[in-house]
Amino acid sequence: MLVRPTLLLFAALLGPRLAWAQPMAEPCDALQAAPLAGGRILGATAVAPGEFAPPLPATQAAAAISVFGNLPAFCRVQAALTPTPDSDIRIEVWMPTAGWNGRLQVVGNGGFAGSLGYPQLAAALAAGYVAAATDTGHSGGDPAFMQGQPERVIDFAHRAVHELAVAAKALSARFYGEGPRLSYFNGCSTGGRQALTAAQRYPADFDGIVAGAPANNTVRMTSMQLWSGLAAQDDQAAALADAQRAALHTAVLAACDLQDGVGDGVLENPAACDVDPRQLACPAADPAICLSEAQVAAARRLYAGPTNPRTGESIFPGLARGSETGWDALGGRQPFAYALGMWRQALLKDPGWDHRQLDFDLMITEAQQAAERTGLQAVNANLAPFFDRGGKLLLYHGWNDPLISPFNSVDYYTRVLQTTPGQPGDAIRLFMMPGVNHCAGGSGPDTWDKMAVLDAWRSGGEAPTRIVAARVKDGETERTRPLCAYPQVATYTGSGSTDDATHFVCQ
Ligand SMILES: [Ca+2]
């Protein structure tokens, strides 16, 4: 190992805190030849400030250039991990040359993964973290990678993120002479599933975890996604037009927007709103946007979620009031591609399967067993092994999410409190985001620093109860509003601007 004696001397004199900020035990390019347990280094490059060019399509690269153009100097390590002979897990670990905050941030994936999240890596690096990402063991977002590749299904399900965490800690230790003091995971959607998988299956990998809109209940969630569109796909006359979805949304706001005291187009607590699509049934409503009987039934499906036809048991919750304008994804004329791909490639291994054959009874049970075997289900609510190590879990979910029911996050949070022994309420927090779509976007404030909240909590602070989120448009903050720890809701004090979070309390 190459060692710079003067740096080590300074490190010894100045103490461990500055040692982290003063790399490095080994120069970046020396990592090229370093051994890596369970894999091999493909490249180790010292990147000068602002010089990273992401391997993205040109339009994406242009849109993201400010993210990359302002990056500090870092050591970029690319590697391939092979926990099995069939595995080929690509990873990148970015280590800041100066100013490391002593922490690791592993960033999650979306959809079927198959690529590295360069914008997320850049954001983590810019905040002072060692940043790490993986493609989860295959290239491209087509679930056909699963055909005849059981080990790669497991890599995608849970193994790749674990192997990445292990490798990123080892590379940090080699580069800085000391591993991360704290390691975090940050993901939404598929990244939310990865987050909960880590908490449940690998409780020692991370000290803190951010899980957004988790796609963790894979079988039941995807069955709901397919079920939501069956009416419209069986009978095209049952499909709602954009204007009808907009009219239903308007009816929901008319009935429920003021329940929270503020007429702002956002429902702070959609669970308290029970508008029935029948309100818009023909011929009573405006004939230009009224709903036929078949359309009323189709709309009710989206709110209700599927039930077992034999037992009547709810299989998965439906979407919340307020989400109507996003219903084309699940309630449109094509089955939701992610759900169809999951059933065809992972659960049934039948690429030609017709989703109309889903029976919502025995098939759900059998698919859950298959998904438990590969690790695609992440529903274990006993998080004692993670919490007992001091682990913190920060959950968030947009109430207007049109892809994954926000009630799933409420259910999981509630089950963790009921299932985990001890005082789990000190180690888990759920923040519902009113008016926010899948992970971000929508009419509600969606912008807040998740990692800053998690780090302050894990580093010894109180569990968060109130987070100020911003709604940002064209780079300008147009509104701030508190997000409240579930089940509390932001409540207007009755005076002052409703665009200013200081005029709201959580209660
Ligand atoms: Ca409101």
Q: How many β-strands, per DSSP?
A: 13
**Which hetero compounds are present in the coordinates?**
calcium ion
* CATH architecture assignment name of the largest domain: 3-Layer(aba) Sandwich
Quaternary state reads single chain
Major β-sheet annotation: 9 strands, mixed
Order the strands across the largest sheet as they lie in space.
Answer: 1-2-3-5-4-6-7-8-9
Overall pLDDT score: 93
- Per CATH, the class of the largest domain reads Alpha Beta
Number of helices: 16
Shape call: globular
CATH superfamily of the largest domain: Alpha/Beta hydrolase fold, catalytic domain
Q: Given the helix and strand composition, which structural class is it?
A: alpha/beta
Strand content: 15-25%
Q: Could you say what the CATH topology of the largest domain is called? A: Rossmann fold
Write up what this structure looks like.
This protein is an alpha/beta fold. Helix content is 34%, strand content 16%. It has helices at residues 5-14, 16-21, 58-63, 65-69, 118-126, 150-176, 190-201, 218-234, 242-256, 293-304, 328-331, 337-347, 362-374, 384-387, 406-419, 450-458, and strands spanning 39-47, 74-81, 89-96, 103-107, 130-134, 182-188, 208-212, 392-398, 428-433, 466-473, 476-484, 490-492, 504-506. It has a nine-stranded mixed beta sheet with strand order 1-2-3-5-4-6-7-8-9, with helices on both faces. A two-stranded antiparallel ribbon has the order 10-11. A two-stranded antiparallel ribbon has the order 12-13. Helix 8 (218-234) runs antiparallel to helix 10 and helix 8 packs across helix 12. It is globular and about 75 Å long. The termini are far apart. Mean pLDDT is 93; it is low at 1-22. The structure holds calcium ion. Calcium ion (CA) is lined by residues 257, 260, 262, 264, 266-268.
